[in-house]
Amino acid sequence: MSHFVRILKINRVFLRYRLDSFFRQQPLPWAIKILLAPLGLLPQPKASRGKRLRAALEELGPVFVKFGQLLSTRPDLIPADICEELEYLQDRVPPFSGEQFVGIVEKTLGGKIDTLFQSFEHQPLASASVAQVHAAVLPDGREVVVKVVRPGIEAVI
To answer: Contact, 17 vs 56, CB < 8 A?
Structure first.
């Protein structure tokens, strides 16, 4: 994706979640105030600012989610309500499908999931910005956790 297209996507998400409201109370250069002025005509968002920021970061992808995770550890820098919402990015990022997970495991390990494991949980234990983990039991009865990097993450990062 070209830099220009990426910037357009970031701007679209910025507008969709009305993140301009984060900056309205701050002293801004006049040129930025002029650019943001038309946004004041749009309806006010219903969701809290923390939820809007978290949703925007999730939509923008793993690098932005990592940034949100970092911010969530800094209550000295951001308001508590935003910090609490961003904590959801630590291990509750929306998961990718169990079918995708199984496909990646089967391709990587070179076998069918039912021969590789005695049992395999299709519901993830945790899902984060870069990887997802599922519980499984090996054929010899040992309980394990299987971790897979999100599909396409290399291209994004």
So the answer is: yes
Token pair listed for 146 = 């299987």
User: Per-residue pLDDT tens for 60-99?
Assistant: 988 899 999 999 999 999 999 999 999 998 877 788 888 8
Domain range spanning residue 141?
98-156
Is residue 147 domain-shared with residue 82, that is, in the same domain? no
- Per residue, the 3-state secondary structure of the chain, as one string, reads CCHHHHHHHHHHHHHHCCHHHHCCCCCCCHHHHHHHHHHHHCCCCCCCHHHHHHHHHHHHCHHHHHHHHHHHCCCCCCCHHHHHHHHHHCCECCCCCHHHHHHHHHHHHCCCHHHHCCEECCCCCEECCCEEEEEEECCCCCEEEEEEECCCHHHHC
Alpha carbons within 13 angstroms on the beta-carbon side of residue 144 total 14
In this structure, the answer to whether residues 117 and 82 fall within a common structural domain is no
Q: Which of 22-31, 64-73, 74-83, 137-146 has the lowest mean pLDDT?
A: 22-31
